[in-house]
Request: fold
Amino acid sequence: MTALRSIEQSLPISLLRAREAVMARFRPLITGYGLTEQQWRVIRALAEADELSATQLAEICCILHPSLTRIFRTLENKKLIKRRRSRGDGRVVSVSLTEQGRVLFEEIAPQSEKLYRQLEAELGRDEIDRLLTALNRLRNI
Reply:
């Protein structure tokens, strides 16, 4: 049998555990507004960019296209986003926040930022910066 590093030294497991630890802080805020984590990621990305294609959102938000279609439908039903087809290429769908979606983002954002500040107080801003740098490098290898 091939020797394998311990599960405590497994990068994929450690990343999953770290993600869960961070999301445990943010999840109550997000679900308190009747949103899923994925729906919040879409709203957050659109708040930063105003309008994105479905393809761009899938990449930015780490959501598969079939799931994104379902999320769009739900967010449209809640009147938080609007979709429009490109005039030049009907296959391209652009998505943006509605005014109601922007208001919701503006309500949640300060609370989310407060949670980030709590993490910074516990870990230190430099440690979070180093972690983000390392994760971005890992993503790009």
The longest strand covers residues 81-85. The mean pLDDT is 94.
